[in-house]
């Protein structure tokens, strides 16, 4: 392997050949043509630039985009033509996005093709589409009377829909069934009563068309105004930073975003707002709409590629100024982007789990740099990563400390499950939780029970003393494998599964297994009169399952909602006054270093579900580790102390954000091949270390991936830690090149993931 190369693929300047796409519509992305870069252009040329080239047999002059620079000719060098020159003048948005794709390929691995397909929208023939709207038929007087009637009869769903229509009519049908969680039968029934009608209209696809804009600006309070002014002043002076707003839920972050977008768009520039899909609720969407009318558009994962393409075209044409959506909205082709806002910036969904494995936050910062734009991150529980950068000054940290209506945070209680066992209660429901559930059922208030599925990775713990088997080298939980062995997924350390607890000698040592289905059975047995809903992967598999369940619960057709993390995010159920976290430890002992961070976030979010309406809320956290700092501090809702404790531990272990980590996946259909190749590759790197060619690196593994075998593919992983991200990128480049030039790797999958969130 060659560890010292002067020229690197993908860097600007000095490359001999340029790979060029002629037409960046999706279908032809696969066709890349190679040209020779004339000497006088070698210094200037960079990925993303538009160039003039001779094309085809006749050498007709045309233009294309540089997608990659390389020193390796892919054809007979005698046949490679010279490119002619740069296209001067204004830089089209495509250039910027292609340059961004180049940056992504370089920093996250994968091919240029993967990266291009991620940043450029898929062009498809747009089918003409009829959009339906729900229109209110009543005058506002009549509507008020009707609303009172529904409320009296306790027709919750109807009352909610009528209420929404009184605020805004017409409403797009999808908004009513989607974000508002109404079933078709409710809409039909209200149609038959003459309250509303459904109207069809042929239209260009704008989900908000036909809705009226109301200028309902709210006056910011002092703390909101202060941070808005601060960000705006810098913006106006052309100083673009990454800002991190740390503010509890309900402290008015969204109102700040809206105010900033207002200013940015008034100055002629555009805004992208990233919101995790699961938190993209009706209320949120309407708040943006009411302020920006049809200048705002929204993306979601249910849209067909054609619908997404339409939204991107509208953005490119300048029909909209604001795009709201999940991760992929980041690539909206705005030509004069001014601001990117990332709400709930700690969410793991901002990291892509397919190639390229990019993080939307880092990529947003890069895009903003290219566009001369600002980035605003917001969260009640910022990622350790962002807060760390806030502390080091890379981001600018701003705080919103008070809640808007000064609503108290819910009361939090911790139940020690070890004590329960001592008292002879072996149920997953503690005595205290059962008592509170009984009380809420009597009072006709709602309950949410939350179990974290993420933790089912197979850690083994003692139910008598709480002891968890962890790796002596890596400080992460060991996972039990089918062969009975306990394995570390970072370093491969193995030990036999114990029969008794090494800490207290109790025989209650085992894997923790309790799924939502099991819990549902237990709850139904204990409270036969309660109406129970369950939301998990099984019950939400079909397209509408998810919304039906939420809608039924919102309409109070059930008393108890049992679910995985799906239920704790973003939803607003005012009648919920009790939230039970059944086993907080399940996310604490995931086999990677994020356990405490995820648990703190989940507990804070779960707690945030209780007491959102007029009634105060209560939270019960059941755990085997009541003394764990993350559980204690979640109870206190003390983020800053949590951060300080956690960052000290990360720093000790050189885990991100105090250092950087890269994982390399080596996968093969043959177990031996996977194992030997992983061994070979890690040895190569270790050899280079010994020879002094690389310094400051630690190589860990190879080990079996957390799911070692999937569909007959055997997976091995090697971890690399280094203080400098770019050093890891270099190692990736060398390994990638080594693998691509050695035939024995031809049938294997080799992939990289930087600062992994969930691992392979
Ligand atoms: P966050 O995004 O931090 O959760 P929001 O911006 O959603 O907070 O604000 C919470 C609630 O308070 C919303 O209902 C919002 O309309 C309201 N609100 C926000 N700012 C103000 C303000 N300055 N005056 C009155 N109400 C406000
Ligand atoms: Zn024990
Ligand atoms: Zn280990």
Q: How would you sum up this structure in a few lines?
A:
With 760 residues, the chain is α/β, with parallel strands linked by helices. The protein contains 23 helices and 30 strands. The protein folds into five domains: 17-123, PriA, 3(prime) DNA-binding domain (GIY-YIG endonuclease); 130-202; 222-404, Rossmann fold, CATH 3.40.50.300; 407-456 and 512-650, 3-Layer(aba) Sandwich (Rossmann fold), CATH 3.40.50; 660-754, Alpha-Beta Plaits (2-Layer Sandwich).
Report on the structure:
With 760 residues, the protein is an alpha/beta fold. It has five domains: 17-123, 3-Layer(aba) Sandwich (GIY-YIG endonuclease); 130-202; 222-404, Rossmann fold (3-Layer(aba) Sandwich), CATH 3.40.50; 407-456 and 512-650, P-loop containing nucleotide triphosphate hydrolases (Rossmann fold, 3-Layer(aba) Sandwich); 660-754, Alpha-Beta Plaits, CATH 3.30.70.360. Helices cover 34% and strands 22% of the residues. The protein has a seven-stranded parallel beta sheet with strand order 11-12-10-13-14-9-15, with helices on both faces. Helix 11 (305-317) links the parallel strand 11 (296-298) and strand 12 (322-325). Helix 2 (93-108) packs across helix 3, helix 2 crosses helix 12 (360-371) and helix 19 (595-608) packs parallel to helix 20. The longest helix has 20 residues, at 671-690. It starts with 16 loop residues before the first strand and ends in a 6-residue tail after the last strand. The model is unreliable at 6-12 (pLDDT under 50). One zinc ion (ZN) binds at residues 471, 473-474, 488, 490-491, 493.
């Amino acid at each position: 392997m060659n560890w010292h190369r002067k020229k690197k693929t993908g860097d600007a300047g000095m490359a001999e050949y340029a790979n060029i796409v002629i037409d960046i519509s999706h279908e032809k992305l696969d066709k890349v043509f190679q040209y020779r870069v004339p000497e006088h252009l070698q210094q200037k040329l960079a990925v993303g630039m538009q160039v003039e080239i001779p094309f085809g047999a006749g050498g007709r002059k045309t233009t294309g985009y540089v997608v990659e620079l390389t020193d390796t000719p892919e054809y007979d060098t005698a046949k490679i033509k010279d490119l002619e020159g740069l296209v001067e003048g204004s830089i089209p948005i495509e250039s910027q996005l292609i340059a961004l794709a180049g940056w992504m390929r370089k920093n996250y691995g994968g091919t240029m093709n993967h990266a291009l397909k991620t940043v450029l929208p898929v062009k498809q023939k747009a089918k003409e589409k009829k959009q339906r709207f729900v229109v209110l038929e009543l005058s506002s007087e009549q509507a008020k009377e009707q609303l009172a009637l529904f409320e009296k009869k306790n027709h919750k769903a109807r009352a909610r829909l009528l209420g929404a229509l009184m605020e805004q009519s017409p409403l797009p049908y999808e908004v009513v069934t989607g974000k508002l969680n109404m079933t078709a039968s409710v809409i039909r029934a209200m149609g038959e009563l003459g309250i509303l009608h459904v109207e069809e209209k042929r239209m260009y696809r704008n989900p908000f068309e036909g809705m009226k804009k109301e200028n309902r600006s709210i006056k910011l309070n002092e703390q909101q105004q202060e941070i808005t002014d601060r960000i705006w002043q810098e913006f106006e002076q052309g100083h673009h930073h990454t800002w991190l707003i740390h503010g509890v839920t309900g402290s008015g972050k969204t109102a700040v975003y809206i105010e900033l977008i207002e200013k940015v768009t008034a100055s002629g520039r555009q805004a992208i707002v990233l919101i995790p899909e699961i938190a993209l609720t009706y209320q949120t969407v309407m708040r943006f709409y009411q302020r920006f009318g049809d200048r705002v558009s929204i993306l979601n994962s249910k849209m067909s590629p054609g619908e997404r393409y339409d939204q991107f075209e509208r953005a490119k044409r300048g029909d909209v100024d604001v795009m709201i959506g999940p991760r992929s909205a980041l690539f909206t082709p705005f030509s004069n982007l001014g601001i990117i806002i990332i709400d709930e910036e700690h969410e793991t969904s901002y990291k892509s789990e397919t190639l390229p494995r990019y993080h939307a936050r880092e990529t947003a910062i890069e895009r903003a740099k290219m566009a001369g734009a600002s980035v605003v991150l917001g969260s009640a529980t910022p990622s350790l990563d962002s807060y760390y950068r806030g502390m080091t000054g890379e981001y600018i940290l701003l705080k919103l400390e008070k809640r808007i209506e000064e609503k108290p945070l819910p009361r939090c209680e911790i139940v020690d499950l070890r004590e329960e066992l001592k008292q002879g209660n072996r149920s997953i429901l503690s005595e205290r939780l059962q008592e509170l559930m009984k009380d809420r059922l009597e009072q006709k208030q709602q309950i949410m029970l939350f179990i974290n599925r993420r933790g089912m990775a197979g850690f083994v713990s003692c139910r008598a003393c709480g002891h968890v088997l962890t790796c002596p080298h890596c400080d992460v939980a060991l996972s039990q494998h089918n062969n009975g062995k306990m394995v570390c997924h970072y370093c491969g350390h193995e030990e036999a599964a114990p029969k008794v607890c090494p800490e207290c000698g109790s025989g209650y040592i085992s894997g923790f297994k309790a799924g939502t289905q099991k819990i549902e059975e237990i709850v139904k047995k204990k409270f036969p009169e309660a109406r129970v809903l369950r939301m998990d992967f099984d019950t939400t598999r079909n397209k509408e399952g998810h919304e039906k369940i939420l809608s039924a619960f919102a309409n109070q057709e059930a008393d108890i909602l049992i679910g995985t993390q799906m239920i704790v995010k973003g939803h607003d159920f005012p009648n919920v006054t009790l939230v039970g976290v059944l086993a907080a430890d399940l996310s604490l002992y995931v086999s990677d270093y994020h356990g405490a961070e995820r648990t703190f976030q989940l507990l804070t979010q779960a707690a945030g579900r209780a007491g959102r309406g007029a009634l105060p809320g209560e939270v019960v956290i059941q755990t085997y580790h009541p003394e764990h700092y993350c559980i204690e501090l979640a109870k206190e809702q003390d983020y800053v102390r949590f951060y300080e404790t956690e960052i000290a531990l990360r720093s000790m272990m050189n885990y991100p954000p105090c250092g950087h980590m890269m994982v390399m996946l080596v996968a093969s259909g043959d177990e031996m091949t996977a194992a030997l190749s992983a061994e070979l590759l890690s040895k190569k790197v270790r050899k280079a270390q010994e020879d002094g060619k690389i310094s400051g690196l630690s190589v860990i593994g190879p080990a079996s991936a957390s799911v070692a075998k999937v569909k007959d593919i055997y997976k091995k992983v090697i971890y690399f830690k280094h203080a400098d991200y770019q050093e890891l990128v270099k190692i990736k480049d060398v390994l990638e090149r080594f693998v691509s030039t050695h035939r024995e790797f031809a049938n294997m999958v080799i992939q990289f993931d930087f600062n992994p969130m969930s691992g392979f």
